[in-house]
Design brief:
The protein is an all-alpha fold. The chain is built from 7 helices and no strands. Helix 6 runs antiparallel to helix 7. The radius of gyration is 23 Å and the shape is elongated.
Length: 198
C-alpha cells in the first residue's frame, strides 16, 4: 500500500514536469519550423512575426508555408485597402498631389488584393500535373501585387506630412510581407510537386 502511495506521489510530481518539457519541446519545434521556413525570405524577422501562428500546422511543408504567407499578405493588403479607401472617402488627406496619389493608391491596392486572392485560390488547389503552370501564375500575380504596392508608394515620393509618413509606413510593411510571401512561393516552386502531400 505504501509502495502504491509512493508511486502515485512520484507520478504526481513528475507529471507536471513531463507536460512542461513536452510543451517546451513542441514550442521549440514550432519556433524552428517558422525560422526554417522564413530563412528564405528577405525580411525574416517580419516573416517570423507574421507567420509563427502557422508553425504547428505547416511544420516543414513548403506548400502550407506558401499558402500561409499569401493568406497573411491578402489579409494585410485588404486591411490597408480599407484604410486607404476610408482616407479617400473622408477627405482626411490634404493637398492636390496627395489626393491624386491617394486615388491612384486605392486603385493599386484594389488590383493588388485581386491578384492576391487569385494566388491564394490557386495555392489551395495545387495538383501535380499542372503544378509548374500554376506556380508560374501565382508568381506572376504576386509580382504584380508587389508592383502595385510599389506604384502606390511612388505617388507619394517627395511628399511630407504625418499622414503621408503613416501611409508610407503601412504600405512599406505590406510590401515587405508580400515580398516574403513571394519568397515562400519561390521555395515551393523549386521543391516541386512532390512536396504537396507533406
Amino acid at each position: 500500500m505504501a509502495r502504491s502511495s509512493d508511486l502515485s506521489l512520484a507520478l504526481m510530481t513528475l507529471l507536471p514536469c513531463l507536460l512542461l518539457c513536452t510543451s517546451a519541446s513542441v514550442e521549440l519545434d514550432c519556433d524552428n519550423y517558422v525560422r526554417e521556413a522564413c530563412g528564405v525570405t528577405r525580411y525574416p524577422d517580419l516573416c517570423i512575426h507574421t507567420l509563427s501562428s502557422f508553425s504547428s500546422s505547416a511544420k516543414r511543408s513548403p506548400s502550407l508555408w506558401a499558402r500561409a504567407g499569401v493568406s497573411v499578405t491578402t489579409g494585410a493588403a485588404k486591411s490597408l485597402a480599407q484604410y486607404l479607401a476610408k482616407l479617400e472617402n473622408t477627405g482626411a488627406m490634404r493637398g492636390r498631389s496627395n489626393l491624386a496619389a491617394l486615388s491612384d493608391c486605392v486603385e493599386c491596392f484594389q488590383d493588388a488584393v485581386d491578384n492576391l486572392h487569385r494566388s491564394l485560390g490557386v495555392l489551395r488547389q495545387l495538383h501535380g500535373p499542372s503544378f509548374y503552370s500554376q506556380m508560374d501564375d501565382v508568381t506572376t500575380w504576386l509580382s504584380a501585387a508587389l508592383t502595385d504596392e510599389d506604384t502606390c508608394l511612388d505617388g507619394f515620393e517627395g511628399q511630407r506630412g504625418r499622414q503621408v509618413k503613416v501611409l508610407r509606413d503601412k504600405v512599406t510593411n505590406v510590401s515587405c510581407i508580400t515580398s516574403n510571401a513571394l519568397a515562400l512561393v519561390h521555395k515551393l516552386a523549386t521543391t516541386g510537386p512532390q512536396t504537396l502531400a507533406s
